[in-house]
Write a structure and sequence with these properties.
The structure holds 2 protein chains of 2 kinds. Chain A is mostly helical. Chain A has 8 helices and no strands. In chain A, helix 2 runs antiparallel to helix 3, helix 2 packs across helix 4 and helix 3 packs across helix 4. Chain B is 64% helix and 4% strand. Chain B has a two-stranded antiparallel sheet. Chain B is rod-shaped and about 130 Å long. Classes of the chains: A mainly alpha, B mainly alpha. Chains A and B meet through helix 1, helix 2, helix 3, helix 4 and helix 8 of A and helix 2, helix 4 and helix 5 of B.
Chain lengths: 151, 164
């Protein structure tokens, strides 16, 4: 009979591996965008995929896209990083063809939700603005991403 | 509900970024099952996010998956250790009375059974005592009877010695 760990490596990693194969590069790029350090980002990538393997059967894969699920797991793993007062500033300008086309406000709102695990009310409180304006800016940011791709 | 207005409200963008509240997320999951337009809009937003991530993708070092495998093995070994559960409050804080105790699961030589069994054990004990007393009583009765038979035989021998 196979030992428990052998079973997991022979069955689960087939799926975990396929997700790794498809999304590890994207996730590493995303994590570097958050922590601004490749070694730390790799550690978080390991943590994200370990957490994924552990909770694999509890995830409702039909609820959202695989990438969205992975990004949410990564954000959960990053909670300790977000709480660290010595963390790097998240809202620095990044070299990204999509983000570069956004205005400063659109980029601020988009980056806040994209890289952080926070709610609208928290952002509204932090930058002293209305929820409607935040939603409007976010919507504009998404249309810029879509238009940039279509060109 | 006006579906178009809902799609334009920005609620879907917040949901795909994981910034919607629990109630908003539940409402959206419910609505997307009823309205294919909402589901389609969500798929498009998820694709937008995926494209953005693809643009900033960086290939991980080839040894990284081995690290993940090792981490998974460590997690399994940790899970196989005896369970040690710390009670926590709803928000994950040790804020109730139980949090000061740690539940430890360990093997014991003692056995726990239902309280109803005590009446069965009492009845068995009582019956065993009754049988013991009864058996002693009938043993003594029998011995006395045997003695009387022996005595009668002796008396008969005395009266009719030729016959026995």
């Amino acid at each position: 009979m196979l030992k428990k760990e052998d079973t997991l490596l022979k069955n689960k990693p087939l799926t975990v591996y396929s997700l790794y194969d498809e999304y590890a590069g994207m996730l590493l790029g995303y994590l570097i965008g958050v922590v601004k350090n490749k070694a730390i980002a790799e550690d978080y990538l390991v943590k994200t995929f370990s957490s994924l393997a552990k909770n694999f059967n509890n995830i409702n894969w039909d609820e959202a896209s695989k990438w969205c699920h992975l990004q949410r797991i990564a954000k959960n793993e990053l909670l300790a990083y977000y709480e660290n007062p010595n963390k790097h500033e998240l809202f620095t300008n990044s070299q990204n063809q999509y983000l570069d086309k956004m205005t400063e406000d659109q980029q601020l709102v988009f980056n806040y939700f994209y890289f952080h695990k926070k709610t609208v009310s928290q952002l509204c409180e932090e930058i002293n603005t209305s929820e409607d304006l935040v939603k409007k800016l976010l919507k504009e940011a998404f249309s810029i991403i879509r238009k940039s791709h279509e060109r | 509900m006006n579906v178009k207005e809902y799609i334009e409200s920005g609620a879907l963008e917040l949901y795909v970024l994981g910034a919607a509240s629990d109630d908003e997320a539940k409402e959206l999951v419910h609505l997307k099952k009823q309205h294919p337009e909402i589901e389609q809009a969500l798929i498009e937003l998820e694709t937008d996010l995926e494209r953005l991530a693809q643009y900033s993708a960086i290939a991980p070092p080839p040894t990284l998956f081995k690290k993940i495998e090792d981490d998974i093995k460590d997690l399994i070994k940790t899970d196989n250790r005896p369970h040690l559960t710390v009670y926590k409050g709803q928000n994950g804080h040790d804020n109730d009375q139980k949090s000061r105790f740690i539940e430890v699961e360990a093997e014991t030589n003692q056995m726990r059974i239902h309280k109803a069994w005590r009446w069965v054990f009492a009845a068995v004990f009582l019956l065993s005592k009754i049988f013991l007393i009864a058996s002693i009583y009938y043993y003594l009765e029998n011995r006395q009877a045997q003695e009387q038979i022996q005595q009668l035989k002796t008396e008969l021998k005395q009266y009719n010695p030729h016959k026995y």
